[in-house]
Amino acid sequence: MLLFEPLERWAKERPDREAIVYGDRRITYADYDREVDRVACGLLALGVKRGDKVGLYIPNHPEFIFGYLACAKVGAAAVPVSWRFAPAEVKYILGHSDSSVVITETSFMDSDFLAKLNAVREELPALRHVVVIGGEEDAARVEGAITYEDFLAGGKGREEELETRKKEVEEDDTVFLLFTSGTTGQPKAPMLTHRNITEYVKGQISSSGLGDDERLLMDIPNNHVGGGVMAIASMLVNGTTLVMLDAFIPQQVLQTVQDERITIMGQVPAQYILLFMQPDFDSYDLSSVRHAVISGAPVQPELVDQIEEKMGIVPYIGYGLTETSGAITFTRQEHAREKIATTIGVPNEGIEVRIMSPERKEVARGEAGEITVRGAAVMKGYYNQPEATASAFDEDGFFYTGDMGFIDEDGFVHILGRKKEMYIRGGENVYPPEVEEVLVKHPKVLFAAVLGYPDPVMGEKGRAYIVPQPGAEVTEEEIKAFCREHLASYKVPDQVVFRSELPLTPLGKVHKYALYQEMEEGS
Predict the structure, then answer these.
(1) What pTM was estimated for this model as a whole?
(2) 369 φ/ψ angles, rounded to the nearest 5 degrees
(3) In 62-158, which ranges are continuous DSSP H helix?
C-alpha cells in the first residue's frame, strides 16, 4: 500500500468526516486530499523528482501533514525539522538529508525559523528552494525564497502530471526520513518507506483494536515517530480523526481531551505524571478515553496503577524505535495485570522478536540479550550510512535495537535497558532502568536517571541523578539506604546528585547523552 492511497479512499468514501482538527480549523477528508494535491503540484513545479528530499520546518500544524502526504504523492521523502532545533541542528538535518526544498513557517514560540535558515543557508549546497508560509515581507528575509501562496499558485495546471507521477511511486520508496532523537549521540536517518509505515500501522490498528470512531490527540512532535507515524499515519489509514496541539501543555491537553472527546492518548511516562500533578486534574471529564498508550521510555508499575485509578482504563505499554516505524510490541488490556505492569507486551502482527547473544546467536527463553526485530515495519536502512546499516542487521534480516531484554516463558518481552547504558561494576552487569525503577518508588523522588562512570578500581560505578518531589528534602544517605533495601549491593548508586530538573529531549525522555557529556566535562 502507498501512504497516500488511504487518503484518496477516504476522500471519496468519507468526504465530510473530520480528518484533522487544529484549533478552530476542522479539515474534512475531502479538504485534506485537495490541499495535499495543491502542495504536490507545487512541488512538481519546483522540479521535485522521485527520490528527492523535502524539508518540512513546520510545527504541529496541518501544513506539515499536507507537505508530508504531498511528498508521498510525488515520490519524495519528507524530512521533518523540529522548531526547537538550534541552527547547527537545522544544518545537520537538512544537510545530511540532501534536502533540495524546505517549506518553512516564519517562527513559532521563541524560535525564529528564518533567522536560523539564514545562518546556515550558505552551508547547504543541495538546498535550491525555500518556501515561506507567510507574506512577501517574510519571504524577502531569505534570499530567493517564495511565499507559500506563490508556491501553490505555481502548481496550478499540473494535475495530469501528478496523476502520472503517482503511478511511478513504489511501496519501497522512502517517504519519511525521520532522524533518531540523538539521546546517545549524533542522530541517524532511518529511511521509512511506504510499505514500512502502512504495514506498521496495520499492525498497530490490529493490536490496539482501534474502532471506526477514534479521535487521537497528537501533542508530541511531528519529527518523532510517535507523531509522524503512530499518530498521523495511523489515523489516516484508519480513516478517523487526528486532533493536533502545538505542544504538550498539561492544562491544554486536559481541556482538549474533554472538549474534543478524545478516545486515544499516546504519551511518554513523564507526560502522564505531569498531567496527574495538575491540581485540578479531577475536574476534567476524561471518560471518552478508551486507549491510553505509554511508550518512549521505561514505565514504572506505579504509573500503570495511577492511570487505572485516575482514568478508569488499563493502559497499553508499547515499545519501539524510529527504525521500526513505531511501537512494535504492546501489552493488551486483557493481559494479566503482572504482565502489563512489568513487560513491554508481545509483538504486533507481522513482527518477529528474538533475543540475541553478543555472538549474534539466539538465546533461550528467560536469558538476557539484545532485542532484535524483523518485519515489514523495519526501516530499509540509514540514509547515506551504509556501514551503520550493515552493522545494524544480521544475515537473517533481524535489526539489532541496542536494547537489552529477554522473553519470558509466556512470550512477553521484558526490557532491561540500552546496551550502551549498561555498566559493569566489579564484573557485575548493572542495568540503569532497574535501579531507576527502585529510585522512583522512594516517596521523596519525582524523577531519576542512572548512569555509569569510569572508576580505576571497580571499572565502572553508578551515579544517580535525582529530582526530588516538590518541597521534599532528601539526603544521599536516605537514597542509598532505600536502594540497599531493594537491590543487590553492587547495584546501589555510588554517587547521588540532586537536581531541580533533568535535561529532556523534546519528547520528554531524559537526555542521557547530555548527562554523559556533563560527566566527561567534569560537572
Answers:
(1) 0.84
(2) -175, -165
(3) 62-74, 87-96, 113-120, 136-139, 148-154
C-alpha separations of 309 from 264, 326, 390 in Å: 17, 27, 46
Total length of the chain:
523
- Greatest mean pLDDT among 205-214, 219-228, 238-247, 501-510: 238-247
181 phi and psi angles, rounded to 5 deg:
-70, -20
How many other CB atoms sit within 10 Å of the CB of residue 255? 13
Angle made by CA atoms 18, 221, 261, in degrees to the nearest 5: 35
Q: Where are the alpha helices (DSSP H) in 290-427?
A: 301-311, 337-342, 386-392
Residue 181 — very low, low, confident or very high, per pLDDT cuts 50/70/90? low
| Residue 182 vs residue 35, higher pLDDT | 35
**For all residues of the chain together, what is the average pLDDT?**
92
Task: Give per-residue pLDDT as tens, 114-169.
Answer: 999 999 999 999 999 999 999 999 999 999 999 999 999 999 999 999 999 999 99
Cα 362 to Cα 347: distance, rounded to the nearest angstrom = 17
Distance CA 494, CA 272 (A): 30
What is the DSSP track for 188-205?
Answer: --BEEEHHHHHHHHHHHH
Q: Regarding beta strands 316-321 and 326-330, do their DSSP bridges make them parallel or antiparallel, or are they unpaired? A: antiparallel
Q: Which of 197, 218, 164 is nearest to 20 (CA)?
A: 218
| Tally of CA atoms within 13 A in the half-sphere of 514 that contains its CB | 11
Is residue 321 a contact partner of residue 225, using CB atoms and an 8 Å limit? Answer: yes
- For 80-89, 127-136, 274-283, 359-368, which range has the lowest pLDDT when averaged over its residues? 80-89
Contacts of 245 (CB under 8 A, 6+ apart): 60, 217, 218, 219, 252, 253, 256
Cβ atoms of residues 103 and 56 within 8 Å? yes
Query: Any idea of the CA torsion for 406, 412, 414, 418, to the nearest 10 degrees?
Result: 70
Q: How confident is the model at residue 419 (pLDDT cuts 50, 70, 90)?
A: confident
CB 104, CB 112: distance < 8 Å: no
The helix/strand/coil state of 396 is coil
- Tell me if 148 sits within 8 A of 133, measured CB to CB: yes
Are 18 and 28 a contacting pair, CB within 8 Å? yes
Rounded to whole angstroms, how far apart are CA atoms 77 and 469?
44
Q: Within 10 A of 144 (CB to CB), how many other CB atoms are there?
A: 10
Helix and strand totals (H; E) in the chain: 19, 27
Give the bridge partners for 356, in sequence order: 362, 370
Cα(49)–Cα(458) distance, integer angstroms = 56
**Residue (of 248, 224, 182) closest to 81 by Cα position:** 224
Secondary structure of 439-451 in HEC code, one letter for each residue = HCCCCCEEEEEEE
DSSP letter at 123 equals G
